[in-house]
Amino acid sequence: VKESGKNDCLLYSDSWSNSSFERLTLQHEMYRAIQRNEFILHYQPQYDLVTGSMVGVEALVRWKHPVKGMIPPGSFIPLAEESGMIVQIGDWVLEEACRQNKAWQDAGLPHIPVSVNLSIRQFVQNDLASKVASVLHKTGLEPKYLDLEITESMTMDVSHVSRCLLDLTEMGVGISVDDFGTGYSSFHYLKNFPIDRLKIDRSFVRDIQQDPSDAEIVAAIIAMAHNLNIQVIAEGVETEEQMEFLRKHNCDEMQGYFWSPPVTSENIEQMLAAS
Ligand code: C2E
Ligand code: CA
Ligand code: CA
Ligand code: CA
């Protein structure tokens, strides 16, 4: 186990994931972590590229482990997906994000949507849309202030997912495709699913300046999305040059360290109050 400076997170070397004992331990601890309230959400702001104002936040889960400290999602989400526990964790994330967003609104802060990451596993339960409806009802958050981020998976049942997404869209919940361009069937998504927004993966954004083909790809994704009436947000924006490029090519929104890393809910509250 080694310490990382960023976000006070503990990062694990690959060795832990190879040890089945450690995996079992972590899996067991994860189960208790839900009951013990050890998960917390950080939020990363999303900005309008024209006005520069904060127009949304993405909820990102962290595990406050009593002994190991703050564990980043990359160190436990894959295991949670594998074991199926991502469904319980995902339920908690969804409700907490909606509850928090409603609390900001009730405090008189600007109303913005919160984006929640969904695992494909959460579609396997056949009641996803009704679960979302009941969380919105319970927390009092209006559907238009919730956005769900989905990623590609080769193992999914397209007609089932598409029906779920149509139900959610009819409710007024926003749908974004996360990590756009990294999968095998990104275009298939746009054709078959009711998508409001796509998020250009940061691997394309990273090399905009160095790699002319990445620049072409990003420009083409933006133009194509706009022709399909789909909004575009770029993720992983770290430099002013990247931001300028995106602005020049009419990208709608951006998210990245250049403006803000994921921060606590208290920080978001301050940012909203100042905006
Ligand atoms: P993601 O959905 O693609 O989230 C964006 C990740 O990129 C976040 O990492 C964020 O901290 C990081 N990031 C943001 N801006 C920059 C930047 O400018 N440069 C770089 N290098 N990185 C940036 P994080 O919080 O560690 O999350 C990692 C992944 O874990 C997420 O990737 C998502 O796939 C997954 N995840 C996080 N929370 C949840 C959750 O509640 N449910 C599910 N199913 N997955 C989650
Ligand atoms: Ca995401
Ligand atoms: Ca992403
Ligand atoms: Ca990702």
UniProtKB/TrEMBL annotation:
Keywords: Membrane, Transmembrane, Transmembrane helix. Signal peptide: none annotated. Residues 23-275 form the EAL domain. It comes from the Bacteria. This is Diguanylate cyclase (GGDEF)-like protein/PAS domain S-box-containing protein. It comes from Paenibacillus harenae. The lineage of its organism: Bacteria, Bacillati, Bacillota, Bacilli, Bacillales. The chain holds residues 358 to 632 of 632 of the full protein.
